[in-house]
Structures are given as C-alpha cells and as structure tokens.
Amino acid sequence: MPNLEQTGLLVIGYRDLRDVAADGESWAGRLFLEHLDPDLRFEVSRILLDELRRVRAIDVDCLTQDGFDRLRSLSRQQLREPWSMSEDERIVDVGLASPRPARPGGPRSTLALTGRGTFGRYVKKALTPRGGHPLTTADATGVIEDLLEVLTSSGLLTRIDGKDGPDYRLRAGALRWMPGDGENGAPDPLRRTFQGEATARVNPFFRDLYVDLAAATPDCTPVSTPRRCRSSCAWIGSSGSATAS
Q: How far apart are CA 81 and CA 174, in angstroms?
C-alpha cells in the first residue's frame, strides 16, 4: 500500500535548507559547489537528504531499541486498536550514509555514497555545465563529501565517526512535515521517470481511503487535507503509524 507521501497527502521538507543553499559562505572553497546556482544547490541537497530518509538513516530516539520499546508501551497505553502497536511489532533497521563503497555482505540499510552510485551518477549529470567537461567519478565523490560536510555543519545531519571513516544520519529535528494537496506523489528523480508527466501520479483510491479513515477517527479535526489527529499528534498512514518515507 502506498504511504502518505506517495498519495500526495504528506510533503517532507528540511529545515532552513533553502537558506543554507543560498548562503555563499557555507560553500566557500567547495569545488563545483561554491559557484553553483543556489536553486541547483538546494535541489541536489534535497535529493541527498531524501536518499538518507529512504534508508531510514535518521538520528531519532524511536529508531533505537530503548526508544522503540518506550514508543510501543506508550502506544498501547494511549491508543486503541487498530492504532496501537502490537507486542510482536519489531523495530526496523536504522540506516547509515557512508561516503565510501559498500562492503561485501554489509547491511542493506547502509547507503554507500560514491561517484559510482545512483546519486553519484546524478551529481555528474546535474553539475556538468552544458557543453563543458563532464565531472569524473572522483569529482562526484568529492562533491558528495562536501555536501555531507556542509549539511552537517548547518545542523541538518549528524556525523558518527567509525573505524572506517565518518557515517551520517539525518537529524529528526531537521524534518518538516507538511500537508500535501493529494495531487502529486513523492518525487524520485534518481529512479523514476514519468511519461508525459512531471511528477508521480497519485492513486486516488488509497488517497481517498486515508482521508476517509482520518475523518472517521474520533478526536480528529480537519486541518485541510489530510486530517491531523489531536490525540496522537501524528499523521496516520495506511498501517496506523506515522511514516516519513
């Protein structure tokens, strides 16, 4: 079943990202990024943060075992079926973003960010000037490392130093959850193209189903579309839990 982003009912943004992209001092000395158009810096940064979110590389308490156990206990105390979490529900794997090649047999939740990967190929295409010399794989890897460092110093990412080098996660406080209009699904420019359309098409059946479920939930008040439940302060998705991916 599609989640709220895919049905266009939820839009995820990032705190102050456009201001960060427009701040020339933050990018000073960053090859290929220093003189880049701020709108393109914003777009490249947004797509990178979306990639971290896709693998749940998020620094948040509920993605630790202790935090998950507390959340499950609170949900059973304060929410009734089918909204509460069951005892057999298990924590999902929390991801990491690593600016180096993936290790053979490593966890699937690790996002390897290099010039050879999906995001690296996008960087090479997006940052190569029209008619100019194309970026190399090493150039794209350097751009990715610079992006991670600037977004960390700007408070959007947190850095975890390990034996193989730094890893990164998105700060939960950097996420901005905003209601969508239900017209366009979540963009995924790295993997999806839409024939004759600029954005993903929404499945109206599931969009209307989620809106109707929220409207029928006690203690919920319309805030536009979708509806926000005052009692849980969470966007209710298809499984009864909030979703950010």
A: 31
Residue type present at position 114: T
Distance CA 52, CA 145 (A): 14
The mean pLDDT values, 10 residues at a time, for the chain of 245 residues are: 92 96 96 95 97 95 89 89 84 92 85 96 93 91 98 97 94 95 88 60 91 76 40 34 38
How many of the other CB atoms lie within 10 Å of CB of 25? 6
Cα(6)–Cα(139) distance, rounded to whole angstroms?
33
Report yes or no: 37 and 232 within 8 Å, Cβ to Cβ: no
How many angstroms separate the first and last alpha carbons of the chain?
13
In the numeric block, the tokens 């393109």 are attached to 40
pTM here is: 0.83
Collapsed DSSP state (helix, strand, coil) of residue 58: strand
Task: Give the chain's length.
Answer: 245
Which residues make Cβ contacts (< 8 Å) with residue 213, sequence separation at least 6?
Answer: 236
Measured CA distances, 191 to 58, 147, 152 (Å): 21, 21, 26
Q: Return the sign of the alpha-carbon dihedral for residues 208, 214, 217, 223.
A: negative
Helix (H) or strand (E) holding 209: helix 204-216
CA torsion through residues 154, 96, 243, 126, sign: positive
